[in-house]
Design goal:
Length: 157
C-alpha cells in the first residue's frame, strides 16, 4: 500500500489550497489530512470499493453536487475560488479523482458548511469526532477509533 506522504500532501496541496480559499487554519489542515488518511489511505484508493465516493477524500458525487447547489450557489466568492482550481470544460465531479487541488477545495468547503468551530489542531480525538459528525455521518460505517488509528498511521502522532 502506497499513498501520498502526509507532509507532501500538507505542504504541496492542502496548505496552498486552504490559503487560496482563505480558509486555512492548523485545525482545518489536520482535519483534511485525517480525512484523507482514513477515507483513502492517503490516496491509495481513489475510487470507493463498492460505493460511489471519489478521490483522496472519498467525496460522494451527491455530496459534491449538494455542496454546489445548496452552499456554493449562494457564496459567489467561494464558488469562484473553487472554479479557479478546476480544469475547465471537464466534469467537475470527475475531477475529485485526479485533481488534488479541486478535491481538497471541495472537502474543505463541505466542512465549512457547518457552524460548529473546529477544535484544537493537535486533538486527534476531536478531529475524529468532527469528521464522524460532518463527513462520515451517523449513517457511515467509519468510526472515530478508525479515524484516529489511520491518522496515527498515515499522518503521525
Amino acid at each position: 500500500m502506497m499513498g501520498i506522504r502526509a507532509e507532501d500532501l500538507r505542504m504541496s496541496i492542502v496548505r496552498p489550497v486552504l490559503t487560496h480559499l482563505k480558509l486555512w487554519s492548523p485545525q482545518a489542515e489536520n482535519l483534511l489530512l485525517g480525512t484523507a488518511a482514513h477515507e483513502s489511505k492517503m490516496g491509495t484508493n481513489l475510487v470507493q470499493q463498492g460505493g460511489p465516493a471519489l478521490g483522496i477524500f472519498q467525496m460522494e458525487p451527491a455530496t459534491h453536487d449538494d455542496c454546489w447547489n445548496n452552499y456554493l450557489a449562494y457564496r459567489n466568492d467561494l464558488a469562484a475560488k473553487a472554479v479557479e482550481l478546476c480544469a475547465h470544460k471537464m466534469e467537475r465531479r470527475e475531477q475529485l479523482v485526479w485533481n488534488l487541488y479541486y478535491a481538497t477545495a471541495m472537502c474543505r468547503l463541505q466542512y465549512n458548511r457547518f457552524k460548529e468551530p473546529l477544535r484544537e489542531a493537535d486533538d486527534v480525538g476531536a478531529l475524529a469526532r468532527y469528521w464522524k459528525r460532518y463527513w462520515n455521518t451517523d449513517q457511515g460505517k467509519g468510526t472515530v477509533e478508525q479515524f484516529m488509528e489511520h491518522y496515527a498511521l498515515y499522518v503521525g502522532g
